[in-house]
Protein: 3-hydroxyacyl-[acyl-carrier-protein] dehydratase
Organism: Ligaoa zhengdingensis
Amino acid sequence: MALLNQEQIKGIIPHRDPFLLIDEVLELEPGKRVVAQKTLKPDEFWFKGHFPQEPVQPGVLTIEMLAQAGAVCILSLPEYKGRVAYFAGIDKAKFKRKILPGETIRLELEVVKVRGPVGVGKAVATVDGKKAVSAELTFAIGPAEGEGA
């Protein structure tokens, strides 16, 4: 059962269709860890042009899904309410298996370091318990909307 649905997720991160890429949050310890998921519908816009003869989930979009889950985790802290988390780095990304239309991706991220407005999360995406993607994601917390840089 979902802890947060898409409407609740929209209250935390600024992403919207067609680029809100997580369906629900299953577990959340604000500022520490998150588990979210995305079920890939066969009509997702990217499948039409990404290897159309053999549709496969783009690895970069799986990284983005992990980052959005991580953004929910860090921006759930009261001191970051209304702010934005930006990519500051992607390290040690590994792609272990293809992810196909119809599959459900489990997106897990653990925040391992935060120093000021910058942090690092260890992220893993799995399908049916098998690792598909892993990476270390560095994020930077930006100002709230309207505050400027």
